[in-house]
Design a protein that fits this description.
93 residues; binds copper (II) ion; Alpha-Beta Plaits; elongated
Length: 93
């Protein structure tokens, strides 16, 4: 019984947290962008990370601006995803 109550409270906590989850916007500096198709690849890669809601990639600036849900994805997740696709990136400081 107690365990049921605990999991119910936890579920409520998690859902309320999701409702007020912080949207975060970060800029990544992305390497290995050689042609016009690369920004598209980077965009697709980042959009596939769960929690990501918006991505805009600039070929000229070598950046990717990512809007994501803090509770679902981390900066490390995003960097790992681009690196795995062949585009190492880092958080622009
Ligand atoms: Cu390319």
């Amino acid at each position: 019984m107690t365990r049921l109550l605990v999991s119910l409270v936890l579920a409520l906590l998690i859902s309320s947290q999701a409702a007020s989850a912080a949207q975060r916007t970060i800029t990544l500096t992305v390497s290995n962008k050689y042609c016009e198709a690369c920004p598209f690849m980077v965009k697709r890669t980042l959009e596939r990370v769960s929690g990501v809601s918006k991505v805009s990639v600039s070929f000229k600036d070598k950046t990717a601006v990512v809007v994501f849900d803090d509770a679902k994805a981390s900066v490390e997740d995003l960097i790992r995803a681009t690196a795995k696709a062949g585009f190492p990136s880092e958080l622009r400081g």
